[in-house]
Design goal:
mainly alpha; Rna Polymerase Sigma Factor, Chain: A; Butyryl-CoA Dehydrogenase, subunit A, domain 3; 2 domains; globular
Length: about 240
């Protein structure tokens, strides 16, 4: 897919004002992508998301523009990345195999499986499973975020929102809160620093005195658990 041309009025000070937000989103996403994916392409699609946010933002809804725009920018970039199909089929199969093993064990045991139990179910040594979770980090993150986005949790509510959509939003948010409560304190901290504070994986690693690879493992494992919980709550597949 060809890169979109960036054509917007140079006098539009709002674009200039928020271009840093686009670059911040790109910086976070690029940390878990192959090196051959050009940041310039990501910024181009991010600007498209920013322009959409500028057109659709309604301040009367009580949501900060930065929050609204962040989701639009990020969504536009993720749509582009999905169209590239960066992951080879074998990687997708491995990621799905780990997800299914986790879902099966959680259902069978009635509790969260240990690292060793999950590794045995997948047929890998625990250290190898850790390495795979780090390597497949981007796939696990995308799988989780796609599930959540289908519940519209990433969009601000509006007065015109369909009652059924509003109910689905509330159900998803409530399930996310309950799912987060089941995670370890360190896992909640990593997710909080990543999703709410906007830090990169490298920055989180520096704060916690851990390698970026280890942060990838922690985040992937946490999101895997959250996704399993949401699926078992009937909120997706």
């Amino acid at each position: 897919m060809a890169r979109p041309e960036l054509r917007f009025p140079v006098e539009d000070e709002r674009v200039t004002r928020y271009i840093g937000l686009v670059r911040a989103v790109v910086q976070r996403l690029a940390a878990s992508l192959p090196a051959h994916v050009p940041r310039e392409d990501l910024e181009s699609y991010g600007v498209m998301g920013l322009l959409e946010a500028l057109q659709r933002y309604d301040p009367s809804q009580g949501v900060r523009f930065e929050t609204f725009a962040w989701h639009r920018i990020r969504g536009a970039i993720l749509d582009h990345l999905r169209s590239l199909d960066l992951a080879v089929r074998s990687d997708r199969q491995i990621a799905r195999r780990i997800e299914r093993a986790h879902e099966h064990l959680t259902s069978r045991l009635g509790r969260e499986p240990s690292r060793e139990e999950l590794a045995a179910e997948v047929g890998l040594e625990p250290d190898v499973l850790d390495a795979e979770l780090a390597r497949l980090h981007a796939l696990v993150v995308t799988s989780f975020e796609e599930l959540v986005s289908r519940g519209a949790a990433g969009e601000p509510a509006s007065d015109q929102e369909d009652p059924e959509e509003a109910a689905e939003r509330r159900e998803m948010l409530d399930a996310l809160r309950r799912g987060l409560a089941r995670l370890s304190e360190r896992e909640r901290l990593v997710l909080g620093l990543y999703y709410y504070e906007g830090l990169t994986l490298a920055e989180i690693g520096a704060i916690l005195d851990l390698t970026e690879s280890r942060i990838c493992q922690i985040q992937a494992a946490a999101l895997l658990r959250l996704r399993t919980f949401l699926v078992q709550e009937g909120l997706g597949r």
